[in-house]
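Hi Prof. W.,

I finally got the Peroxiredoxin family protein prediction working! I wasn't sure whether to trim anything, so I left the full sequence exactly as given:
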Amino acid sequence: MGTDTPDAPADDAPSRAELAARVDELEDALAEATSADDGKKMSIIATKGTLDMAYPPLILASTAAAFGYEVTVFHTFWGLDILHEERSKNLKLSSVGNPNMPVPNAVAALPGMDRVTTKMMEKKIADNDTATIEELIETSLDMGVEFQACQMTIDLMDYDEDDFYDGVTTGVGAATALEDMAGSDIQLLV
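And this is what came out:
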């Protein structure tokens, strides 16, 4: 007969205090691992570069960041103009095909009407003390929003990466954007 019986503790078994300490360690590690997953993530794709279509992704991004979301905005095709320092200051508002414009399409198609409607919108923005595109970008960057510039579009449009706002991530491809969207709680196409 051996000295180890089912009722007797084995010599190498941990004590109750050691087990309690190990349980505490595991609970702490679990709490840390699960708290990192509590953050919400939003992914936006910006495809339009008109004045009226520059505001939605910027407003949504900055608002989500203010609520604690991790936000990524992937800009592709004409949406890339929003991130271009010079082009973003000259975005136009198209009056043709916009059912909410105060002029009929026949009048909106006249030469110079886009310039007129753009000036009207810029006046409304100034009169209402609405943030400019540049201000929204800077605020968003300060809040941790990641603005990504589509590399294929940069190449296609022959843009110089140095012409984008400081803080814009260049060289991003569609695969990276898809991976980001797959891990997001909210995905938007603007």
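The mean pLDDT is 88. Does that look reasonable to you?

Thanks,
D.
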